[in-house]
Amino acid sequence: MKYVILLLISIISMQTVVAQKPIKVKGVVKTSDGKNLGGASILLYTPGKPDTLRAVSNDKGVFTIANVVPGKVTLIVSFIGYRSFFNEYDYSKSTEDENIWDIAMTPGDNLLEAVTVQAAKIQIKEDTISYSIDSTMYRKNDNVEEVLKRLPGVEVDKTGKVTAQGKEVTRVKVNGKDFFGGDVTTATRELNADMVDKIQIIDDYGDQSAFTGVRDGEAAKTLNIQLKKDKNKGYFGNLTAGVGTEERYLGGVSLNFFNNDRQISIIGNINNTNASNFNFGNIGGPMGATIGAIAGRGGGGFGGFGNTGNNDGINVSKSLGVNFRDEWGKKISAYGSYSFSDRRSSIIQNQTQDNLLSSGNIQNIQNANNYNVNVNHRFQFNIEYRIDSFNYIKFTPQVNYRETDRDNVTDFAFSGISGAKTNDGITTTISNSETPNISGTLLFNHRFKKRGRTFSLNLNAGDSRTESDEDFVNLNTIYALPPFTDSLYQNILQDNTSENLGVRASYIEPLSKKKSLEFNYAYSQQLSGNDRQNYLVNPYTGDQAFQESLSNIFDNTYITNRFGFNYRLNEKKYNYSIGLAVQPATIQTNSVTGKFSSKQNIVNFFPVVRYSYNFSRSRSLSVNYNGNTNQPSFTQLQPVTDSSNPQFIVVGNPELRPEFTNTLNLRYNNFDFISGNVFFGNILASFTNDKIVNNVFQKGPGSQETRYLNSNGFFTLGAFYAVSRPYQNRKYVFTLGGNLTYNNNLSFIADEKNKGKNLILGQRLAFDYRLKKWLESNLTFNFNIINNKYSINEQLNTNTQAYTISHNSRIFFPKSFILNYDLEKVFNVGLADNVTTNPFIINAALEKQFSKNKNLSLKLQALDMLNQNIGIARAVTGNTVTDTRTNRLGRYFMLSAIFRLNKFVGKAPQQNSMMMGPPGSPGMIRN
FRET label pair with 463: which of 417, 441, 591, 721, CA 20 to 30 Å apart? Predict the structure, then answer.
């Protein structure tokens, strides 16, 4: 009987295969008056099937779509200037080719009001999400930032920070190359939207990973802006000048010259409106999770107000930058940038910090007045040498220089459990520092004649030094019986050094067309040193006396050797990697002044598991596990008591071991071609062994001492999702997104373990609306809840809530008038009394565009009309909760003129790969 059943199943299966033999669908696209229409876009969609078949009609209007599975299908034909054609056909019983003769295109405008075909708008492939950009997604003179605000799964706040799939974007590229050193806001605000063909969000594991296809470590979110092929020859830019009330001013120039492969960009700006061009932080590095900023950080919408007034403090900025790109012959590509910034900031902060100590909850209220001057220079260059089709070299040197002057005055007041004041006082700090930094990487890729066999070598080195001179005064009144005052006048000289050297080699041996083995080796050497000289100063004579007990000479060396292998399988629908690495490490510390020396030998194991399944071009699932280490800083290691600030004493621990973190990440992405519905989901679990935590002791009234030790039990669980659903050709777009994070923080209070359970819940609901061509509007509701519970003492348990409602619109009037407005109301619950505020921010701008090309504009802006712009933030650690209120730029009015340059005469260039690698290899970016 079982053989009969198997035979019947086989026959049914054969019949099913025969019945589903693909067919061809042919047709002719004509206008309503019978003329053939060439160049029309044809899509054939099968309900229930994720893929969409595409074709373009030839000059006679004829098209052919092959590999059509028999069944009910929907045909969509679109052409600019004509209404889109929709019709359904039933080919369930078809065994031969089918012809369509009833396509008639009627004149109409389908740019904004009619149907925009959604197919191929989003493509998902492993670590890359690619958005196709068309003219329906922006207005004339919009920049790239306005486009990003309309992409599902992407958020842009008012400072220009870009978040994609719940993670901050830390680096930007243009056509696969760094633009101004990778500054995100520089590219998104300086490049015109009408130049963009595609925007890619990439989980970037580095250049070497892009070549080998092996992912290792934590990925950085990278934005790649792919320009249209006909924007390769010409010039574009802006000239801006403005003057306003409250002595506000701004002036800016942005000039870009493109001549095929040669591209030169110049950016200059001077203002006192809190605007800035460049970010001189750690570009491209992995970003840690933040506990949360409350109030005034909403994003999305329109308006073009940029980051004006949304940075903390009052800032005067000068900046200048040059970006260069060229092809030196057929084999060498060169590109790089120089950036300069002079930023002077006046910052006033009110802060309430609750500290959990052994005696209970101690509160510290501080009021600080800071004046900072930061001068930055950054030079970065890249040379790519394509020796031949088998060998590739990339050399990237970088030089940074930072000079900082700081003048700070802070008054403080500590109160105990009963609420009575224990001590108060004032600290004054005047300091200056210089930080030169030079680094470089050299990458060599070699592909053997045997397909799939490759070798890659990456060398990196860096040297950084910080020299500082600080005058520190601490006046502290202690309310004992009787009260008395301690005074401390110090001069502190420090020379911190950091050197690193690294080598990573990778060899891939193909086992078959789909299988391969990767063997890798990595060597890393990190040297850090701290030379600290502390002098007590006589406030009356100015004489200085060297204090050996407060001074320190300390060195730390951390050396690792890592050996690993990975097995990789590539199938059409899925691929996976399984690997293991072992890393012996040596940590050696030496304290000259502390007369202490220590050496540790540690071995860590790094399992690597990565699985990716592509259901279709628009739906994928990936699972990724990896491990990484984190070395303690020299401040945490040096065994010398640092009591230069008697309220916060620090003692290092030379026996600290590096942290080891295991991370599991699961991600699911889905996009429906026809409806445009989008879903992004991500689940993260992270567990850290030997977590470096604080061990805090109370040393007296208003004084605590922090030590460091390793502990287990720290973990983070997180989830993120984003859902976007458009209606009536994106006339209405609803977006729902949220994140949930649970942190099991650890700390010690006088050697007693304290668990801090931290729950963060955030939700965002946005509604975008377009009415024909004259109105674009956005309404957004955000709420964030931060809940903290501590195991030792419930006094520090908190529950904070923040609700934000924002609404903004652009209204296009006749005669080229444009009205922008931006409303944002914030409600904060649970913050400290001296910090909490519920600001209502109202911004508006009226712009008049002149000339036929609208390249000249006059704009009248009103910023923060109610004068309520305040920055509010909460930070949570193992034993502290800190609420901070910071001043921001308040109400002013400004009249500015903008002259826009935009002229292109280029043709589409040939395609070239950014770096050598197998076609279609994961992570490859093409330009």
Answer: 591
